[in-house]
Design brief:
The chain is mainly β. Helix content is about 0%, strand content about 45%. The strands form 2 sheets. Strands 2, 4, 5, 6, 9, 10 and 11 form a 7-stranded mixed beta sheet that branches. A 4-stranded antiparallel beta sheet has the order 1-3-8-7, with no helix packed on it.
Length: about 130
């Protein structure tokens, strides 16, 4: 059973930073594509960022480009989301997700960005940005 546990959420002022972590209990973590999504009550869950299994490629939603950075440490089975220059509109529950499918990885091929492409999900961590 693959489990994902997010941490690092909290309350921060606009312009501040937070780093989210997602620990994954899977021996094959290194082979997973990893993603971050977020959801606001009453709205659909949306893509934030994703990283390929070998970190060759990362992709971001336009709304977070230049402010958020996704990374992974395969030795620690952990993926991170460094969030800077936070805005009130970044307030949401942030979810970590894993795509266990084996796909060809190339720097020219976008990483999975659809919810349906991900097999495993964490429970979410709340991020609140005050103005």
């Amino acid at each position: 059973q693959v489990q994902l546990v997010e941490s690092g959420g909290g309350l921060v002022q606009a312009g501040g930073s937070l780093r989210l972590s997602c620990a994954v209990s899977a021996r094959t973590f290194a082979s997973y594509t990893m993603g971050w999504f977020r959801q606001v009550p009453g709205k659909e869950r949306e893509f934030v960022a994703a990283i390929s299994r070998s970190a060759i490629r990362t992709d971001y939603a336009d709304s977070v480009k230049g402010r958020f950075t996704i990374s992974r440490d395969n030795r620690k089975n952990t993926v991170y989301l460094q969030m800077s220059s936070l805005k009130p509109e970044d307030t949401a529950v942030y979810y970590c997700a894993a795509d266990s499918s084996i796909s060809y990885v190339d720097s020219s091929i976008p990483v999975a960005q659809r919810i349906s492409e991900y097999d495993y999900w964490g429970q979410g961590t709340q991020v609140t940005v005050s103005s």
